[in-house]
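::Encoded backbone::
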Amino acid sequence: MPRRRHFLHLLATSIGRTLIYTLDRQPRLQAQSNPTPTSRIPLRFFTAPEALTIAAAAGRIFPSDASGPGAAEANVVIYIDRQLASAYGRDRYRFTAPPFEEGTPEQGYQGRATPRDTYREGIAALGPEFHTLPPQQQDHLLRNLESTRFFRLLRQHVIEGMFADPMHGGNTGLIGWQLIGFPGPYMSWSADMGQHDGGRRFRPKPKSLAQVIRRPVKPWEDEQP
């Protein structure tokens, strides 16, 4: 029986925005013109309630604060959803036959659970109402899981979703790259030579790979069996 399709409803104000710094270096997001009220993003792995839980957890690991927007604005949950739906999520390329032993840190994870299994366990531990809890309670629940594989994997994926190329689902509007001043995969800087002469600050507007090569790019997770 086909799996019921789930969608995550995101406010349009969190999509396609540009990070603007004022003269006193205070960040703000400039929304796109004529936004629609919401955008329905199809989920590939999570159910809608699971996506809300992970989005809330990601938002506590990389919150929006005085330095700028965080995981919520970058739609990190979409990045995580796409990775778990791919061959990576089911451990297609990891040796998963027993015996399962506790390996050294250099060996990496040696257990039975796939990334998908790990997330299911973590979501169950956080509880179905996690996204509705006050931030302090969310932080308390996450601290209780800090030593688990779920938390380590979630933290890793939040960082990846913030700063990976947006073709993978996160870093919406190149928010992560705007935060750290990363220009993206420019192929040449010849047109920008001399932009920083005279001590002027040079911070080029970031471009994704698709913007640089001027054609859509198919992410690896869409190509894997």
Notes: Strands lie at 6-11, 18-21, 27-30, 38-43. The chain is about 35% helix and 10% strand. The chain has one domain: 6-95+111-220. Residues 6-95+111-220 form one domain.
